[in-house]
Amino acid sequence: MLSYDVVIIGGGPAGLAAAIAARESGCERVLVIERDDRLGGILNQCIHNGFGLHTFKEELTGPEYAARYEDRAHEVGVEFSLGSMVIDVSSDLVVHAVSQERGVYGVQAGAVVLAMGCRERPRGALAIPGYRPAGIYTAGTAQRLVNMEGQMPGREVVILGSGDIGLIMARRMTLEGAHVACVAELMPYSGGLKRNIVQCLDDYGIPLLLSHTVTRIEGRKRVEAVWIAKVDEQRRPIPGTEVRYACDTLMLSVGLLPENELSREAGVALSPVTRGPLVDESLQTSVPGVFACGNVLHVHDLVDYVSQEADAAGRCAAHYALGKRSPDVQEDGPAEAERVLLLEVESGVRYTVPSTIDPARMDERLTVRFRVDNVYRDRFVSVYVGDERIMHRKKRVLAPGEMEEVVLKRADLLERAHAERIVVKLEED
Ligand SMILES: Cc1cc2nc3c(=O)[nH]c(=O)nc-3n(C[C@H](O)[C@H](O)[C@H](O)COP(=O)(O)OP(=O)(O)OC[C@H]3O[C@@H](n4cnc5c(N)ncnc54)[C@H](O)[C@@H]3O)c2cc1C
To answer: Could you say which of 222, 254, 286 is where a domain stops?
Structure first.
């Protein structure tokens, strides 16, 4: 059986950044297994710009951003197995994959990093009555058809859901000569970034219908029209508000789901909120030696944050494989008693990543990422360790579509030796 220090599943931006970090942390043999025949993941179809503002301080397209990491991964000597689909990961860190050239093969890993990304919620997950005509696409599939295959999915388009991919496709379809009648959003707020609403809808005069949904799809062979109605506070269509939009295409941008079938089979505990693995301060899952990062862990809006998180996962996986417990714990240094603090959420905060922290093992500073459950204005993001508030920061606007973060200091947690939990919440004052 092949043997590697760190095996990374998925060669998207998360997998690439994790692999580079693992090599740079001293692992000799690092392997990325990718089912596609090229690296870069979903970024290959994101040909618009706006990537890398945080990481490179310049605006890159998705493929350009991915290429920078791909070049660096080759430079530092990461190995790749492309066209290889991972079919199984065991709790003793054996990864099985299948490829045309090798058939089924196994790799013994010193540590595994899960970086399989996410997939889109399909029509089947929505209860829209009607036949199953041609012309209904998830926004990501349409993006791939237009940007990579050179095919136009349709000419008269309605988009359901205002996630970032839907917003970006509204602009792309307009630029390619189609007419986008509207973007309908069930919630009273958009699920996408503010900058995408401005640059992809407002700049092209495309209406965003908040608190609206598609109630009916007309057409047997091909979509001929969709009916859109207003919804009430319980998100139920309001009778009498339906409007018919003649169209040949309905695009769905109704959410992303972390791709966790492999994780579940490996015995990794998943969060019911993010549907990604529950992880500790080193991004290690409930299975020792299995780490997770990127969209398989929780859905990110900016790829820069994916790369930062994956860098940490790759570093921690490397330290695990090399036999060190954490990057900061010196083998001959003072041993701290193990104390795991639970990260809990209250009023307005949906989840945090990570969900537990051992202060003795964390870096000097640790970024905790979270999302809120509604749009809030002029609220304070507060962090309590035990009963003591250690952070209280005012934010003008918080929205579910924008990931938030707080940075915790190890010293703050070590000082409060009796605390058992950390709470992140929103407060009015
Ligand atoms: C359709 C779509 C469009 C997006 N557009 C934007 C955008 O415009 N801007 C933006 O900032 N973000 C965008 N995102 C978010 C984007 O996904 C993240 O920013 C980033 O690409 C996540 O990186 P990742 O490596 O976690 O996942 P991905 O880029 O999805 O990479 C995961 C990789 O894992 C591979 N893989 C999965 N399962 C297996 C397996 N079993 N065996 C082997 N390989 C496997 C996949 O083939 C893929 O290459 C988009 C996401 C989607 C789904």
So the answer is: 254
